[in-house]
Design goal:
CATH architecture of the largest domain: Alpha-Beta Complex
Mean pLDDT: 94
Number of domains: 2
Oligomer: single chain
Helix content: 25-40%
Low-confidence stretches: none
Order of helices and strands: HEEHEHEHEEHEHEEEHEEHEHEH
Radius of gyration: 19 Å
Shape: globular
Structural class: alpha/beta
Strand content: 15-25%
Distance between the termini: 40 Å
CATH class of the largest domain: Alpha Beta
């Protein structure tokens, strides 16, 4: 399967593959034609950058240039893992089509044996946004990918359910101080422990990172955020209006919430509910920040 996937990528094809965060829709990061097809299949605006995946931390200097020491320190601490580092792009290794024409690129080393085997065998960078239609709920199983993209993908590699369940944290290290562009699988508390100071969060505004639109990660049903104290009464009120209601109650473990968030949103869509009531976890610098962020963006879609 890996050998076949490499052949497809080198021929300019598209391969969906598992990572610990969500499933990625991969194309050769150095091939402009493959990247244009990738964006077309996903329905992604061309100015919206994608992350380039690598097999080893050493490739940070192969895909990027003038990489600062703080980036190497963060990569050493969290790779393989759900952290993306934005650095200056090497034009001979990453085509501008992967970055929305920017001179920077987000790079990460995923923590999944299938993804790492694919990346090692391919040798270069694989540009890979989440393997779903743009703006919709991210896929955490191969079945989700097939349901969303069908025959538009040349190969789907099944590596089981994603273990983390939400996308990587994105940190821009191109300025004098690192900045969080997207909260995700590595908490800001853990980042601060490595950097030695809290990081500034800039997760809205110009599209400098994937998944940062005001409305994103959205199911077909309307998502409404509620406090746990009024969840039951709000559900009753909506049902009294004739609406089919689904509920996402926050479990005690935020890691469990993250792992099953997208799968649960998809299940509720399949049931045909009109409204999904979700109790977000606290945004306190840990993984709960990522879950709360995804839910806020899903709710903004309606």
């Amino acid at each position: 399967m890996i050998e076949r996937a490499v052949e497809i990528l080198r021929a300019g094809g598209i391969v969906a593959f598992p990572t610990e965060t969500v499933y990625g829709l991969g194309a050769d990061a150095a091939n402009p034609d493959a990247l244009r097809r990738l964006f077309a299949v996903k329905g992604r605006p061309r100015d919206h950058p994608v992350i380039v995946h690598a097999a080893r931390a050493a490739q940070l200097d192969e895909l990027g240039r003038d990489v600062p020491a703080v980036a190497h320190g963060l990569g050493e601490a969290f790779w393989p893992g759900p952290l993306t580092l934005v650095v200056a792009r090497r034009g001979d290794r990453v085509a501008p089509e992967a970055t929305g024409g920017r001179d920077t690129v987000g790079i990460r080393v995923p923590d999944h044996p299938v993804a790492l085997a694919l990346l090692e065998a391919f040798g270069g960078g694989i540009a890979a946004p989440s393997a779903n239609r743009f703006g919709r709920v991210s896929p955490t199983t191969a079945a989700h990918v097939r349901a969303d993209l069908g025959d538009n993908v040349d190969l789907v590699i099944d590596g089981g359910p994603s273990a983390v369940g939400v996308e990587s944290t994105i940190v821009d290290v191109t300025a004098s101080e690192p900045v969080v562009l997207r909260v995700g699988g590595v908490s800001e508390l853990r980042l601060a422990a490595v950097v030695g100071a809290p990081l500034t969060r800039r997760t809205s505004g110009e599209i400098a990172a994937p998944g940062t639109l005001v409305a994103h990660y959205s199911p077909n049903a309307r998502v409404e955020l509620v406090d746990a104290a009024v969840l039951s009464s709000r559900a009753d009120e909506l049902r009294a209006r004739g609406m089919a209601v689904g509920v996402l109650d926050a479990p005690s473990e935020v890691a469990e919430y993250a792992r099953f968030l997208y799968a649960r949103l998809r299940e509720l869509d399949e049931r045909g509910v009109d409204v999904i009531l979700a109790v977000p976890p606290a945004d306190n610098g840990d993984l709960g920040a990522a879950v709360a962020d995804r839910l806020r963006r899903a709710a903004a879609a309606r």
